[in-house]
Amino acid sequence: MIRVATTHASASAEPTRRDFLFIATGAAGAVGLAATIWPFISQMAPDAATIAAGAPVDFDLSHVAEGQIVKLFWRGKLIFVRHRTADEIKSAQNTDITSLRDPEADSARVKPGKDQWLIVYGNCTHLGCVPLGNEGAFHGWQCPCHGSVFDTSGRIRQGPAPINLPVPPYAFTSDKAIRIG
Amino acid sequence: MSGHSTYEPKSAVGKWFESRLPIMGLIHSSFVVFPNPRNLNYFWTFGGILAFMLVAQIITGVVLAMHYTAHADMAFNSVELIMRDVNYGWMLRYLHANGASMFFIAVYVHIFRGLYYGSYKAPREILWILGVIIFLLMMATAFMGYVLPWGQMSFWGATVITNLFSAIPGVGEVIVSYLWGGYSVSNPTLNRFFSLHYLLPFMIAGVVVLHIWALHVPGSNNPTGIEKKTDKDVLPFHPYFTVKDAFALSCFLMVYVWFAFYIPNFLGHADNYVEANAAVTPSHIVPEWYFLPFYAILRAIPDKLFGVLAMFGSIAIMVVVPWLDSSKIRSGNYRPVFQIFFWLFAINAVILGWLGSKPPEGWYVIASRISTVYYFAYYILVLPLLGLFETPKSLPASIADSVLGKGGSGSAMASGAASSPSTKG
Fold first, then answer.
1. Which residues of chain A carry a pLDDT beneath 70?
2. Nearest CA in chain A to B357
3. pLDDT at residue B251, rounded to an integer
């Protein structure tokens, strides 16, 4: 197509009607091809049922003892609910955030007045393994797969993970209950 | 190519058919009279072994698919039913699982053969690149196959490998959710992996046809690395190489079935007999042994994006090897300094594999980094520079001369076909 078009262009300065038809046909074909490919890409995305299954979940905190880490699922993703001890809160708050890879104050990762409750996603931000609780140099979590170490605020401190364990969207529905999502 | 279109059908039906579809002539010229260098050693039998393994994997795999259920709730049990209830199901599954390992043993020998004898050099660059593509397709196929039993290693292997794509800046998270079909590895993931695991072997078969086609243009490289010149340098494919390939394949099959029948789980992981659990990662997760060197490279770099880039780069760099190696001499037999670096590279690859199986802590991490540096240095420093400084040994005048010992003592060689060429430089 291109070869024919350029031959014409060099033969006469004015593009011919046939040049126009070649380009128009090619353009229409390209649009049609893209429109055909799109459904084949789009079908890979999370389907309607998977999205619908992401409805908020309620969780009762009253059964979580101090120092305990509870796992639950929302939208198929693992979430840690950690009832932090006073020591864990203090070490999380007293960290110099300028030294962190992903600087974030502990107060930005918990709800105001609810310092004892840390709710974070339970998959390592490196490659998705589940870090082990109360392990590692900072007694937060340590990932068994590639050695990422998180502190008691779920922030990345050592190892290959690039960012902190993210905080899922949640709110306190009462003093002892949360709704995730 | 000498020996081309010498096929003469004898029967009337044969003539009638050949004039309409000349496939017998193609087979005859490709696998009967095709002239191979007469000095090929047993490292050259692995191409045939690989072709056999591909067919074996497709046959056992198609049968296993008749009994397997690709659903997150049923996959694990359906594999157990294959093992216990299906007639010979245990055998088919063990042949398929160990067949994957044998396939990779053979492909690694095949790749190192090519690296040592310079089989990637002109005019075989396209042949080599097609081989790298086959290797990549094999890795994708093996990875997705390992996910199907839906055990703990399946699940967490799938989680780690798909999360590699989350390292892509900006769009990484979206790409990963499109790979999963959800917000984590889940039933849609298993379904699409099964579909692709069934598809990819046939794509491999297609690329293998191109690989053999590209091979048959210049013909096989050989231990001297010099091209065939006269009819004295070559022997017909049949019976000389069909028999040699068949003997090597028989030896290889003995190892294969030894694994399948006597130590079928030796190369697997006990954790994969525990059903997938999204809440618990096994305390020590490792990929299958054939991915370990690349896994070690991934873990050697303390940065997510660069770790992933290094891992993919360690395979991608093989594509440009033909242009990185500056030496005009193909065969490592005639390159004394190259041999040292080559064997260091081979040992280094094994060490990387071993390091990949170790936990990512302490001196293992340091050793992984040193090994990773040498892995890349071999490609981007040693191969380009060595050709400029190294003085190669003198090459024989022809393949026939190297076999028949002309110029050496060369007295008691009974026949060229039976003699053993000096392939150890």
1. 1-12
2. A145
3. 98
CATH number at residue B364: 1.10.287.980
- As a whole number of angstroms, the distance between CA B72 and CA B276 comes to 9
Is B182's CB within 8 Å of A122's CB?
A: no
Average pLDDT over residues B175-192: 94
CA quadruple B78, B84, B88, B90: dihedral sign: positive
CATH code of the domain covering residue B55: 1.20.810.10
Contact B159 A44 (CB under 8 A): no
Geometric angle at alpha carbon B40, from B36 and B41, rounded to 5° = 155
Contact A145 B178 (CB under 8 A): no
- Taking Cα atoms as reference points, which of B26, B87, B84, B122 lies closest to residue B325? B122
B369 and B274 in a common domain:
no
Judge if B277 and B306 occupy the same domain.
no
Does an H or E element contain B63, and which?
A: helix B46-65
User: Stretch B253-278: mean pLDDT, rounded?
Assistant: 95
Same domain, B252 and B369: no
Q: Is residue B318 part of a domain?
A: yes
B108: three-class secondary structure by DSSP: helix
Q: What is the mean pLDDT of residues B132-160?
A: 96
Range(s) of the domain holding residue B309? 286-389
The token pair at B204 is 């491999």
This prediction's pTM: 0.89
Determine the residue of chain B that is closest to A146 in CA distance.
B360
Closest partner residue to B304 (CB to CB) among A45, A145, A162 is A162
| ipTM for the whole complex | 0.81
Burial class of residue B67 (count of CB atoms within 10 Å of its CB; 0-12, 13-18, 19+): middle
Q: Is residue B409 part of a domain?
A: no
pLDDT digits (tens, 9 = 90+) for B329-387: 999 999 999 999 999 999 999 999 999 998 877 899 899 999 999 999 999 999 999 99
